[in-house]
Write a structure and sequence with these properties.
The protein contains 3 helices and 7 strands; from the N terminus they run αβββββαββα. The protein is of the alpha+beta class. The strands form 2 sheets. The protein has a 5-stranded antiparallel β-sheet with strand order 1-2-3-4-5, with helices on both faces. Strands 6-7 form a two-stranded parallel ribbon. Strand 3 and strand 4 form a beta hairpin.
Length: 181
């Protein structure tokens, strides 16, 4: 019985290794394609981009058809209520406004937390000022140019998105101050 279970375990482990080895390049290619698509979703007027050469962030300079810098597309992640939330954040060239956001990955509660992927929530970030930082309000309309309204019943997810954006913008500002952007 021990020998049979050992053989089954070895065969199952080997099959899982083979499937994982086969799937990993496909997963990486799909993630790259989704990232490239999201760059232009957060900067719809963009025509080309180039990666920012910095190990601290995954960011892209986005250009119009005349190769003028429109802004940056930043991939940044952090913890949500249920797990990681990964965002694409569109930033103006001076890093003081959000052009738009896209949720690349999330595992928030269906029907509540995953409302961060819906247009009414994401639309709040279009043209939002992020100076000094983005804040949120609950059960009332935002009255400041750097405020959004949190999702009722999913405040943790909303706060997490705001925190991820604020952290990512702070990193980009530090890079700009050091002359790396």
């Amino acid at each position: 019985m021990i020998a049979t279970l050992t053989i089954i375990g070895i065969v199952a482990g080997g099959i899982l290794f083979i499937v994982s080895d086969w799937a990993n390049p496909l997963i990486a290619a799909n993630q790259k394609l989704e990232t490239e698509k999201a760059i232009f979703l957060v900067h719809p007027e963009g025509k080309s981009y180039e990666a920012v050469n910095c190990k601290d962030v995954q960011a892209y300079k986005v250009f119009d058809k005349e190769k003028k810098l429109l802004g940056y597309s930043l991939v940044h992640d952090g913890n949500g209520f249920q797990g990681k939330i990964r965002l694409m954040i569109g930033l103006s060239a001076d890093l003081n406004k959000i052009s738009s956001i896209e949720v690349l990955e999330q595992v928030e509660t269906p029907g509540l937390g995953n409302k961060i992927t819906e247009e009414p929530f994401k639309k709040q970030f279009k043209g939002l000022q992020n100076t000094p930082v983005i804040t949120w309000v609950k059960n009332e309309q935002p009255d400041q140019p750097n405020e959004i309204q949190a999702i009722t019943g999913a405040t943790i997810s909303s706060k997490s998105v705001v925190g991820i954006i604020n952290d990512g913008v702070a990193k980009m500002r530090r890079l700009k101050e050091r002359g790396l952007l």
